[in-house]
Design the sequence.
């Protein structure tokens, strides 16, 4: 893009469905995928007279997430009603949190292991709890008011995480989302499954354009309808270009008369955003305190116990793996990003074989590739950590070459058992030291030219003997053959 | 005294001694309803077969020697604002004319567990909004003492059904005086419990932070009997009180000793009918005879109570009534009215508009608009927030008062029952009838209305006692002692 310099300003609102068994204010199941309207009751279907009762588990999960996001947990939080009419909202209001959210003022550090941007701290304005709405099975387009509504999702607990407008590119936004999802899955508060709607993203984006001592802000656009992190990145990249071009054409900026926040939807097929009609009118939600629910008090003990039970979170884990196992930041990042189970597996392997770097290499080059090819997870991986560790140790000791080690791993994946059993079944035996010396001596005697070369300093000549040695005994270790041949030739 | 004129506790004795069956009793009340409710219109619906079936079942269980619940076959009338599973619950609104709840309200479930026989659902102001029962979408209830007059509201049917001997016990609700004011106009006893003492689960909400379910009956002891059944913690209502329920019936028989009564002088000022003032003063004298001391107390913020109430209650109502939109249940305006309306408007919005325009009555619309306005951006601080502040000050006034006195005594309403149509064109004068009653709702405290005399037109007049939170036993003790010395509560109107 040519022309004037500008800064992209992005803030994200992420809704995650909390992994509770029941809904936020009733005991209906919140499982995804049941037939329409089979998980409803008087409370979540908004029957006259029914009253909400808070699901304490949802509050605890929300607190876990908030503390993981370094948020403050106020002692006192309350519920508010957000009033608006929509068919998927049977009460005519959504129970949410307005001026006293359950958490605020946190942050999430993000960095790009490939170095596209510096490590950045993205501020979290607040994270609050609210109930989900139902789902319209048809869109309410003009003349189609006979749409049907599925209320199974209605009342499911959501945590809305609102970031500061701290992201400066679409790529950063994507990394933020990836890191947020990783954190929430480590915390086991949500499965963050975008396809099932348990993680939803809305983005606010505009540009700050530098113009001769003047900073011009373009109108803020809210982008919705993005169904993957990739779509978020694409949509934001598109929006940045669109806004810049629009500004060049019209000069319209934030604060101009008639400029309101516009809502645009991402069309993934057409790869562009479209204005969502009817959504630009500013709504007055008439928030007021929900009289049917009591305010919630977060005791110091409760916050302490949630904090104590968080476990090691991704950022700390990356640092620890790099330090304790001598991994590069890149390697630590790859392992941690695979999730807690893979890290646990790595630690088991590395601790047993005593070599973190090799454990990391084997995991990344062999295990992860296998998991990816077979579409499985580390939990379902057939080789226990101790066997992989023994395999790595065997390679270290020279009992196995790397390539024969791979054969052993493949054998273990298909047949199970121990490394020793696999080696036996594959006919791999450790060659006795004296046997190996005998073999090398025979080869040297049979190749006086090579002996002469070695003696004159051309040590590389020994390489030719390695192939011959392997031909006589496939179990020999090439390094050992080389070493012994050099030693024997020098003595000759 | 005929069978149906006896008190509930007397009838319970007859039932227990098997001198009368629940079927006979239920039948007698249903006959009384058949004979006189054309004129009074206390009930919106009765179900004779269902009630008699229920009575038969209880009689059979009693005959088999089973132990029965504490109402053991007594009939009860229920205000049509409490959800009854499988039976229409309309809130006296066209909007819910055919609404059949899929569940029982907790007070209803407790009545059933106590082996009550539910006679039917009583008339009320639509969505409990009003003080005259004229706002019912299905026609007003008339006062059995003078059928040209209103029975009070919003629990007008509940009070009138008792005065007309159509039931021995009645359940009402009170958001700003809706139990006490009709009890006063109909010459019966009505108690608004402490907020949260009776579960609101299944009470169709008007103003959630003010609504209270409570008993009406002809004697303090009957009220105590019914309160004992419906009171108590309910895990399904987050605002429900956990403290155990007292022995209310025993309280009504306890002698009064050293009761300290407080009188708010402003409550005997301008606007109070002189006959009402005199009758209430006479009643206070009787309490003195019973050993009570009386002193004046200050309630400096009580003059703002009506204003605060008419911001808070409509604000909550505007949100509580948003669910009646034609989308999920209840009435939906005929499709022809909105499907092809102006092309400018989304048919969904047109459907909402037509449904709510037709489904709600004028007073309900007025309050929805009032509340929507008070909660709107730019007005919220000046109205809603300020009203909440006033509410806290009023609660503080009560708190201070109850440091000095045990109960506050005064009138229930400024005048005896007025004539139908008298105030229906003037909403503001209608709101002022709540002057003495809204304070208890704003502060969440209990209050009782007792018959204490008649006007020269032979219209009942009531006295109100208010107590600190959870002082129901003391209120009932005072009421029981008063009724031990008076006969106002045993007088009955002549029905045509
Ligand atoms: Zn439910």
Sequence:
């Amino acid at each position: 893009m040519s022309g004037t310099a500008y800064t992209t300003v992005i803030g994200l609102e992420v809704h995650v469905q909390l992994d509770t068994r029941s809904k936020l204010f009733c005991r209906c199941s919140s499982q995804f995928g049941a037939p329409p309207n089979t998980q409803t009751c008087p409370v979540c279907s908004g029957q006259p007279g029914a009253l909400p009762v808070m699901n304490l588990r949802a509050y605890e999960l929300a607190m876990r997430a908030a503390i993981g996001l370094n948020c403050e947990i106020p002692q006192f939080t309350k519920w508010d009603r957000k009033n608006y009419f929509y068919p998927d909202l049977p009460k005519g209001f959504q129970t949410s949190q307005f001026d006293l959210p359950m958490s605020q003022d946190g942050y999430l550090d993000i960095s790009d292991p490939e170095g596209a941007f510096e490590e950045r701290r993205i501020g979290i304005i607040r994270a609050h709890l609210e109930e989900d709405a139902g789902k319209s099975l048809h869109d309410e387009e003009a003349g189609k008011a006979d749409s049907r509504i599925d209320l199974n999702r209605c009342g499911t607990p959501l945590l809305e995480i609102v970031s500061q407008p701290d992201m400066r590119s679409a790529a950063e936004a994507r990394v933020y989302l990836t890191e947020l999802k990783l954190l929430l899955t480590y915390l086991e508060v949500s499965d963050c499954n975008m396809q099932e709607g348990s993680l939803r993203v809305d983005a606010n984006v505009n540009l700050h354009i530098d113009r001769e001592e003047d900073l011009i802000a373009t109108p803020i656009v809210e982008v919705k309808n993005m169904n993957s992190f990739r779509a978020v990145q694409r949509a934001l990249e598109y929006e940045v270009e669109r806004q810049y071009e629009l500004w060049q054409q019209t000069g319209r900026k934030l604060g101009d008369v008639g400029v309101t926040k516009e809502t645009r939807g991402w069309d993934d097929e057409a790869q562009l955003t479209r204005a969502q009609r009817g959504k630009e009118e500013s709504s007055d939600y008439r928030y007021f305190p929900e009289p049917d629910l009591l305010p919630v008090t977060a005791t110091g003990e409760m916050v302490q116990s949630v904090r104590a039970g968080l476990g090691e979170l991704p950022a700390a884990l990356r640092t620890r793996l790099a330090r304790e196992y001598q991994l590069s930041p890149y390697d630590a990042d790859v392992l941690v990003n695979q999730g807690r189970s893979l890290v646990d597996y790595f630690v088991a392997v590395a601790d047993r074989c005593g070599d973190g770097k090799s454990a990391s290499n084997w995991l990344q080059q062999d295990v992860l590739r296998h998991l990816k090819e077979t579409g499985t997870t580390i939990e379902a991986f057939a080789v226990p950590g101790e066997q992989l560790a023994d395999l790595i140790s065997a390679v270290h000791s020279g009992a196995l070459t790397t390539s024969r080690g791979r054969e052993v791993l493949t054998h273990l994946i298909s047949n199970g058992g121990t490394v020793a059993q696999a080696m036996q079944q594959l006919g791999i035996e450790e060659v006795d030291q004296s046997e190996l010396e005998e073999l090398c001596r025979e080869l040297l005697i049979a190749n006086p030219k090579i002996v002469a070369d070695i003696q004159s300093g051309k040590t590389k000549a020994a390489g030719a003997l390695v192939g011959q040695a392997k031909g006589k005994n496939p179990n020999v270790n090439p390094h050992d053959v080389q070493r012994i041949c050099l030693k024997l030739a020098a003595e000759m | 005294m005929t069978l149906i004129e006896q008190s509930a506790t007397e009838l319970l004795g007859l039932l227990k001694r098997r001198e009368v069956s629940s079927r006979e009793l239920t039948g007698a009340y249903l006959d009384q309803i058949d004979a006189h409710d054309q004129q009074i219109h206390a009930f919106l619906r009765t179900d004779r077969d269902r009630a008699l079936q229920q009575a038969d079942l209880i009689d059979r269980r009693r005959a088999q020697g089973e132990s029965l619940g504490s109402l053991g076959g007594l009939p009860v009338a229920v205000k049509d604002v409490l959800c009854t599973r499988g039976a229409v619950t309309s809130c006296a609104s066209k909007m819910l004319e055919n609404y059949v709840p899929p569940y029982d309200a907790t007070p209803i479930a407790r009545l059933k567990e106590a082996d009550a026989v539910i006679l039917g659902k009583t008339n009320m102001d639509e969505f409990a909004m009003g003080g005259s029962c004229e706002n019912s979408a299905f026609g007003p209830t008339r006062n059995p003492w003078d059928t040209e007059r209103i029975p009070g509201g919003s629990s007008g049917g509940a009070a009138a059904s008792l005065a007309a001997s159509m039931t021995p016990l009645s359940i009402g609700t009170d958001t700003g005086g809706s139990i006490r004011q009709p009890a006063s106009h109909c010459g019966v006893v009505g108690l608004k419990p402490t907020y949260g003492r009776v579960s609101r689960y299944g009470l169709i909400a008007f103003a959630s932070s003010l609504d209270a379910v409570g008993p009406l009956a002809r004697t303090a002891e009957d009220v105590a009997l019914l309160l004992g059944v419906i009171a108590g913690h309910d895990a399904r209502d987050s605002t429900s009180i956990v403290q155990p329920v007292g022995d209310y019936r025993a309280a009504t028989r306890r002698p009064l000793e050293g009761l300290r009564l407080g009188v708010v002088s402003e409550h005997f000022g301008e606007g109070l009918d002189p006959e009402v003032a005199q009758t209430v003063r006479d009643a206070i004298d009787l309490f003195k005879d019973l050993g009570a001391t009386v002193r004046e107390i200050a309630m400096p913020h009580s003059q703002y109570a009506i204003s605060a109430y008419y911001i808070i209650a409509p604000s909550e109502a505007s949100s509580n009534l948003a669910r009646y939109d034609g989308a999920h249940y209840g009435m939906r305006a005929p499709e022809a009215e909105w499907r092809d309306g102006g092309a400018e408007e989304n048919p969904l919005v047109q459907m909402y508009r037509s449904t709510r325009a037709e489904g709600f009555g004028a007073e309900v619309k007025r309050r929805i608009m009032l509340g929507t306005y008070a909660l709107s951006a730019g007005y919220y601080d000046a109205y809603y927030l300020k009203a909440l502040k006033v509410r806290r000050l009023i609660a503080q006034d009560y708190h201070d008062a109850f440091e000095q006195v045990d109960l506050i005594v005064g009138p229930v309403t400024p005048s005896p029952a007025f004539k139908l149509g008298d105030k229906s064109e003037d909403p503001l004068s209608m709101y002022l009838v709540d002057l003495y009653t809204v304070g208890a709702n704003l502060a969440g405290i209990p209050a009782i209305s007792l018959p204490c005399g008649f006007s020269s037109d032979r219209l009942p007049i009531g006295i109100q006692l208010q107590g600190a939170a959870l002082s129901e036993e003391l209120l009932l003790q005072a009421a029981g002692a008063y009724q031990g010395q008076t006969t106002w509560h045993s007088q009955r109107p002549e029905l045509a």
